[in-house]
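Q: Hi! First time doing this. I have a protein sequence and I read that you can turn it into a structure. Is that right? Here it is:
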Amino acid sequence: MNYTNEKAETLRQQVYSKESIRAKLAVIYKRRQELKIRLDELDKIRIKEQQDVDNLEKFSLASILSSITGNKVEKLEKERDEAYAAALKYETALKEFNAVCDNITYYENELEKIGKAEEEYEAVINEKFTQLKQSGHPKADEIMRLDRLVGRMQNEIKEIDEALAIGTKAKSSAERITAELENAENSADEDILSQYSCGRAKYTYLSNAQEELNLLQVHLSRFRTELADVRSIDADLQLEINDFLSFADIVLENFISEIIVLNKIRKSLESAEKMRDKIISTIYRLEEKRDQLQSDIKEVRKQLESLVIDTPL
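A: Yes, that's right. Below is the predicted 3D structure, encoded as structure tokens:
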């Protein structure tokens, strides 16, 4: 028996989508504000670091070389590296900010398309409910309650599937970051053991990890958004660029000691492993929730079918 006509089903999905979009927008609006504050801070640091480089570069190469100190050359290189690190952090945050703004535009447009679906849906449901009551169906209230329950659970499964899709991407990024940092750690270990302090292999791995970290930031932003309307799933997936050391930051430590570089890599690796494990744990909980909902839907449908079959009109 078809419990809802085509119009009612279409409107119902729109209503559930509208509720979902509103929940997502609330999360995204908050994240946009956080990122805006972070961007302003990073921009000030970026500008200051670049000004330091510009001030040093006012000296000609000849004047630097003729001056007593090779310290000026070393200081200029250090300032350039610091400016690069500041610019990299700003660009990473900017990419996430732009991605969040794009998401806001998309969801606001979707919300506008849906229009007054809630009012139309209620009108259709009320009409159907009236018909059931007028037909003399003694179980009309229970039928409508169970039908709506199935619809809510189906919608939640849909939201879980969307969260899982982006969560899987985040997991892959976190796993690649971990692998690159493990390679960097092994390379740094070898440099220390061989007493070769100019090895560059570890920096290639760190550069790869940095690129993947940029992707992970965007994936996690979307993952948190998708989780906003999945009930009973509350995951702590906050990640700021400072939770990891950027490639440029670690390069700067080469001016001090290879051992310090190794320690910084290990600290980054520890953070990456924690984030990867958080993502995996959240995905596992989502899969458990989806399996439970699918089982619940089967049971409710059995009740609904039984109720309709056993109740004569």
